[in-house]
Every structure is written in structure tokens, then in C-alpha cells.
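Consortium newsletter contribution from the modelling node. Members have asked for a concrete example of what our holo predictions look like. Here is one, prepared for the pyridoxal-5'-phosphate complex that several groups have been discussing at recent meetings.
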Amino acid sequence: MLNSQPPLLTGPAPGPRSAALAARLAGVESRNVTFISRDFPVFWRTALGSNVWDADGNRYVDLTAAFGVAAAGHRHPVIQEAIRSQSQELLHTMGDVHPSEARVELLERLAALGPPGSRVVLGTSGSEAVEIALKTATLYTGRPGWLTFSGAYHGVTYGALSVTDRSLFRQPFRAQLNPNVVRAPYPAEGAGDASAALHQVERLLSAPEGGIGAVIVEPALGRGGDIFPAAGFLPGLARLCRAHGALLIADEIFTGFGRTGSRLACDAEGVVPDLLCVGKAMSGGMPISACIGSAEAMSAWPESAGEAMHTSTFMGHPISCAAALASIGLIEELRLAERAREEGARWLDELREMASGRSVVREVRGRGMMIGIQLEDPAGRVPSHRITAKALVEGLKRGWILLGSGVEGDVLSLSPPLAIGRDLLDLAVEGVDEVLAACEATLLSSC
Ligand SMILES: Cc1ncc(COP(=O)(O)O)c(C=O)c1O
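And here is the predicted structure:
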């Protein structure tokens, strides 16, 4: 596997260059964007494989694949070459007017992920793919309502925000969100069976006022805290959607392309959604996403008479298309889904064994290379999100890039490149153990 080198810190993290860049950034970027403190963030200078180097020359191992994007590893030479050779021909086309060959090839590849005859609309972000899916369902059913789930994260543009469940993101904009949104509980594996949640979905879908045109679901909650659904939930949802004439939208922006150990997380459950949203790992690093829909659902879009109803300047960007073709090809060729399944299962066992000795860990759960470590202060004095924040800083100090998740911010998420080497995964167990030990020591000292 690519460039599997252990962490190597040559100085403090963040070091003086990161600190200087943080000061400059703070002077020009909206203060809501980047969280800056004495200990955070580090500025990335370069990355390769599972490694990232910061502006001060410190080498890290990225246990996040940068939001799950770098499935084949950072800056994979095959993706890099696809970008280079495309850039020598064409940097930009005209979105919905004059397309490129790379776009046709990518659409053919993506359409094959859905049932025969599927059609695709490209976007530039995950949120946009969600917008396209919601618009498709509205066109197809003529109904204004959307059903979504507790803990959901679908993005922060207005349509996507309407179906996202995070009050911090929603509160100031509440009055402008789709008022026809209903929410059902997401049935977490291990917390009962799926039937209560499905019952509630059925009740909402058959409410006399009706009007639910789309049910949007993540096959596993990503930003919601690496939560996996109870067995039978997704197939049950597909059945209910069919029975009530609503379209099922699977948001696989995080789980798609091998992350949970199968090509799509829906595949493992035998579920074929009406609409499928993908992004992130699809390109390995260029901004592109897609909504893939069954021929029937997509027939709701009228034929273009010269004006596309959904488009944008950079839609189907040729370089992003070339990168996506290379990334999807690599994920297949390197059998990264199978790898995620096998190595992920082994890693999960090791992490569970390690965490059994750590009092700040309530649970370790995962599928494939999507793993969540649920944190808590056993004595209940310190809010769990503060433990997560401490873990991210302690991770950086030891050369591990980590990310928090969960509606309460109480989960340490591990989603490394699917191509990461076994040696680094083993080392990461020790690294995370040290991070958790440092969190425990801080809790003790704060008593
Ligand atoms: C499941 C899911 N849906 C949608 C999004 C939004 O994608 P983007 O940040 O590319 O707009 C994300 C991003 O984390 C996601 O995890």
C-alpha cells in the first residue's frame, strides 16, 4: 500500500508556521469557519498515501481520509495522472451546454451503480447531490414533504439543511427551511429492533394530510456519530416507500465506494434505492458528486429545451470527472471494499480489546473502515464533547489526525484511507490508546 510511514514529529504540533498561518487566516476568514486555538489546527502542506505533512514538516497518519475522501490514499499517482493529463487538454467546459467526453464516461460508470436505465445528474458537493435528489422526488411525486431521521447529516444548503438534524446548524435559519419535513427515530443497532422506527415511519407516511414525497436516509450515520441501523431497517424502509408512493433516497455520500465494506452500504442490505447520492471518495479529492436515479424516477425531469432546471457553472467539470473515473477504477481494481471489510473487522476487534482497558470509552462500533469510539467521563463531570476535543489535540501531538462526530460531539471517528497498510493500523491502535490515556489523565487532574 502507498507510503505507509508512521508519525514523525520534528517539533510541536501545531508548530510556528502553522501558528503564523492561523493568525493570518483569522484576519481574513469568517470567524465561523475554522476553529483556531493554541493547539489547533495544523496547516497541511502536502499529503501522500496515508500520510500528511504540515507546514512545519511534521508527518502525520491521517485516520480520517480527510472526511472519507482519500479512499485510495492521498494524491494517488493514478488519480494525479488523470488530473494532469486532463488538464493538458481542457480545464473547463460549459456545464449543461457543451459537455466533455470525460463526463460521458463518468456518467456511464455511475449509471451502472443503479438499476438498468438509471440516469445521473452531477453536482459539485455532497449537499448539491442531496438537493438534486430532493428536487427529483418533488418533481416525481408532486408532494412537498420529506421524511428524515434523527441524527441525520445531509449537508447545510437550504434543502439539505431542512433534512439535517443538528440544531446548531438549523436554528438561525429555521424560518426558511422546508416546513413539510417530518422526522422519525433512527434505530441504532444494539438499541432494540427496527420495528418501532418502521412503525413510526409508516404512521408518518400514512398521515391523513399526506404529502411525503421522499424518505431520505443514511445507510449508516456518519457525522451523526458512526451509528449503524438495526437489521432489517433499510429493507423495511424500501418496502414502506413503495407501499406509500414515496421515493427512497439513500445518502451514500460518506458510506459509498467501499467505506463500510461493500460497494455501497445499501448493497449489503439488498436494497436498491430510487435515488442514490454519492460524493467524497468518488473522486478521491476533486469537488464532484452525483445523484443517480432509476429511469422511472428521473423521467420526472422534463427534456431540456435549452434551459436546464438544475445546473451550475462547474457541473461535470472535466478534471473532476477524470479524477472520479480514476478513483472509482482504483477502488474496484484494488478491491478496496473487500479490503475495508476484512481489515476493518480485524481492526475493530483490536480497537475493542484496547478500549476495554480505557474508562473513557463507552463503546466501539464499526463496519468496514467506518469506526466510532463513543467517549464519556465515567463519573459524568466533564461533557463528552470536551473529551473528544481533547482527543483530537492529543492525537495531533502524537502524529494522528482524528475527527470528532456525533450530534453531541462525543464520538471519535476513525475512517482511514481504505488502502492504509496493516502495520499502520496496528500502530494506530497503540496511538489511539495513548490518546485515550492522555484524556483519562486530564479527567483525573480536573477532579
Ligand atoms: C452523509 C452525508 N451527506 C451529505 C454530506 C454533505 O456533503 P458536502 O460536505 O460535500 O456538501 C455529507 C458530508 O459530510 C455527508 O457525510
